[in-house]
Amino acid sequence: MEATAAPFSSIVSSRQNLPSSSIRPSSPTSLFLSRKKNLGYVNLKFKSRLSVHASSTSDSVVTLLDYGAGNVRSIRNALRHLGLSIKDVQTPEDILNADRLVFPGVGAFAPAMDVLNKTGMAEALCTYIENDRPFLGICLGLQLLFESSEENGPVKGLGVIPGTVGRFDSSAGITVPHIGWNALQVGKGSEILDDVGNRHVYFVHSYRAIPSNENKEWISSTCNYGESFISSIRRGNVHAVQFHPEKSGETGLSVLRRFLDPKLPATQKPMEGKASKLAKRVIACLDVRSNDKGDLVVTKGDQYDVREQSNENEVRNLGKPVDLAGQYYKDGADEISFLNITGFRDFPLGDLPMIQVLRYTSENVFVPLTVGGGIRDFTDASGRYYSSLEVAAEYFRSGADKISIGSDAVYAAEEFMKSGVKTGKSSLEQISRVYGNQAVVVSIDPRRVYVNHPDDVPYKVIRLTNPGPNGEEYAWYQCTVSGGREGRPIGAYELAKAVEELGAGEILLNCIDCDGQGKGFDIDLVKLISDSVGIPVIASSGAGTPQHFSEVFETTNASAALAAGIFHRKEVPIQTVKEHLLEKSIEVRI
Question: Which parts of this chain are annotated as the region PRFAR binding (predicted)?
């Protein structure tokens, strides 16, 4: 039977109110660990009071170490999909008794180490690994094995592998975080990567470990993103990967299969592919809201108006969210984004239908899921206060990998620009601090405002490629809130710069003027923002043909392009878009 208890929930809820910058945990195990430098492995200098015992669980059970942060539902669903039952770690002894242990670390380094140390899990983990028991760390679950991290630090890690985890160097001309589908350079004896071949896998992280003479014996694959970094390690039965196999489609599931069953026969021919570098992403967006009958439907706006131009004036219904998301996954979407467009009217924690959409979707969709709409601090009618952390945590627990903040980020940016002070109290800052900036997307909804001269307004003004309706040569992009209904005294350029400073990891760049028009992305806007920030930018609004995708990738620094209506109405299949991009020599995941 699968354990249903929520591990460490009380510990995590208590630590979420602590700023991670104030946490400087010291690993008790690092005091006892030494490594043989020329071999690169760990020996324990002491006889631990902990010992590993063989458990009586069957081959269909895997033990999961969930310390309570971020989206662990995805790895649960992937393991279930592969026919496994899950036993949750409740005590350090559960780690020591595990036949196979999966550690899907999500979030920031310091809070994770704090939880591991407080619960006694750190020492148990090191003992388990030192005894060469089957172990798979994922993302932060790999980083924590190193000696220390610079994230909110320095912070001591488990000290199993030599080296320090540092931030990607954005001065190398790359956007940080590293988000998207990238290629691996797989070494010999990697075992669990045997079926990957030349296929892309999904990364989302701002920090990485660098190969060195001291840790080279651990490395089973590397990845290139401005520099070569460690994408996986292997020593005996101990494995860890920087990418997310549970979010890497069928390729990622093959990695999990090989870890769970090392005796699987070697494939004659790995999966075919042409992965060589970070791919451009094609994202399917589903605007979700209740229709007039109370059913949750996928809709699509025409310049943000989602109602049919008919006598009934009903909400435009383009399908059921779970079904459409599943179809887009099969069609090759690199990510799926849900936007709860009634989020500003209904409190998210009470928005049970949307929570259920995430839960059901994540059961069978193994690519990243983003959800947005109404993620903010809130006080309900009874006077109970909910922090944005609690709201975000509910979405993460339900299957979201990233959350998207809209209006609340605008207000936070306005305050920051007035005061020049980061209060740390905005939803953007709080969620980024606890879960990492790679988990936070800011959605910008600007409207083009034409001016006669660049000095007419105190905002960033650009010269337009195509003049306005009255021949205007210049425009600025006014940000809006509440689903585009209210304009704010801040431009898209100013907002993008501010939210990057406040902790956003990615920008979803919409354009009200282009929404639903099918005439192409606003290239002027996308170029302005993608040239101005050091975080990835997703181009949105206006896609009508495959050529619009190649145009935005060829003329701007957008990392991804998003579309909705053309996919919902089956006007342009996702695969057709990708085939066109390949013809244009633009790397995509196939």
Answer: 406-407, 443-445, 515-516, 541-542, 564-565
Active-site residues, by number, are 139, 244, 246, 287, 445
* For helices 352-362 and 388-397, angle between their N-to-C axes, nearest 10 degrees: 40
Question: Which residue, 296, 306, 381, 393, is CA-closest to 347?
Answer: 381
Binding residues: 139, 374, 510
* 154 lies in the same domain as 251: yes
Contact 94, 87 (CB under 8 A): yes
Q: Do both 291 and 162 map to the same domain?
A: no
Q: Average pLDDT, stretch 205-222?
A: 97
Report the CATH number at residue 556: 3.20.20.70
Number of domains in the chain: 2
Regarding whether 219 and 158 lie in a shared domain, the answer is: yes
Which residues pair with residue 486 across a beta bridge? 481
> 256: left (phi > 0), else alpha (psi -120 to 50), else beta?
alpha
**pLDDT for residue 542 is more than 70:** yes
Q: How far apart, in Å, are the Cα atoms of 252 and each of 140, 247, 248?
A: 17, 7, 4
Mean pLDDT of 241-246: 98
Co-location of 223 and 298 in the same domain: no
Global confidence as pTM? 0.86
Read off the amino acid at residue 542: G
**Do the domain assignments include residue 458?**
no
Annotated binding site for L-glutamine: 139
Could you list the beta-strand ranges (E) of 436-484: 440-444, 446-451, 462-463, 474-481
Q: Which amino acid, one-letter code, is at 503?
A: G
- Structural domain containing residue 192: 61-260
Find tokens 């179809």 and name the residue: 327
